[in-house]
Amino acid sequence: MGAIVEKSSLEVLLAAPRGFCAGVERALDIVELTLKRWGSPIYVKHDIVHNSRVVEELRTKGVVFVEELNECPDDRPVVYSAHGVAASVKEEAIRRNLLTVDATCPLVAKVHAEAKWHNRQGRQIVMIGQQGHAETTGTMGQVAEGEMMLVQSVDDIEALEPRDESKLAYTTQTTLSVDDVANTVEALRRRFPKIVGPGKDDICYATTNRQNAVKAIACQVDVMFVVGAPHSSNTRHLVQTGQRAGCCSVLLVQGIGDWNWNVLDGAKKLGITASASCPETIVEEVIDAVGERFELTFRTIASAVENVKFNVPRILLQQDPEPEDTNP
Question: pLDDT digit string (tens) for 144-180?
């Protein structure tokens, strides 16, 4: 009979808030309600959220993910992802008379509205974002080509050549690093003192809250797991935030076993958070896997309380009229 190996103790500090935000929950509700109302298949332009587990589960229910509208038939519903789409996409859908349901996060839609308003005022717009990211592409597509200039970092600002420095505005992708955006905005204002910004920061509340929660934990733990997808902007920025806040070992974890167990050798405290597009079920699986090797105790570090709820489009709440009774 083998000897019983005693587990080492490990305190887990859980970040709060973590995981799904209201925009993601709304987008997923929209997909489920669209399936319920019109049946499968339905089409979604771009991944509804940046998490492969979520996307694969929806595929099994009859959701087809596409990058272009020409991949969609004329007779099936099309859902726009939470990241938003360019104005040209909506125009094409109208031209084809497609049934569309807009799952764009309301906070992204706010950025779109601001961009169009600045454009109507004759201002050229500086977009602080990541080239190729679906949200940045959608936002830049709200105005004509040349009316918005992309800046990815402070280093890009010097190369900007606006047509009129007195008529400039800026907007941002909602999922960026709060600190990086603040530095970029400061540099923009130094070069273009008359540049106009949003009335309220465009970085969404969920991104800010999750980054603040990581900052509160990072200096207290030996290792931190950020659960999420590598192609998710807010996941990558949570990793970056943890590193900058003082944790020397921050790992991006997609799921069970997505790490080398050696990283926990000698560790006494493990921090765990999850990106805004990551379901809590994956976090629970990660915790269970760690619990098989360690004797765990838990402490939640809360930096904010979230009670935001976004409504789904009215088209999903309308009841189809009852057929008329034609019997005599």
Answer: 999 999 999 999 999 999 999 999 999 999 999 999 9
State yes or no: is 145 an active-site residue. Answer: no
pTM, full prediction: 0.91
pLDDT band at 199 (very low <50, low <70, confident <90, very high): confident
CB 223 within 8 A of CB 262: no
Torsion angles phi and psi, residue 125, rounded to 5: -120, 135
Catalytic residue among 135, 165, 280, 324: 135
Tell me, which fold does domain 8-20+205-302 have in CATH? Cobalt-precorrin-4 Transmethylase; domain 1 (3.40.1010)
E strand or H helix that includes residue 250 = strand 250-253
- Per CATH, which fold does 22-105 belong to? Rossmann fold (3.40.50)
Q: Which two tokens stand for residue 164?
A: 């009129």
The two structure tokens encoding residue 57: 């589960």
Round to whole Å and give the CA distance between 75 and 149.
37
In angstroms, the CA 15 to CA 239 distance is 13
**Domain 107-191 is found in CATH 3.40.50.850:** no
Spatial distance between the Cα atoms of 37 and 131, rounded to a whole number of angstroms? 36
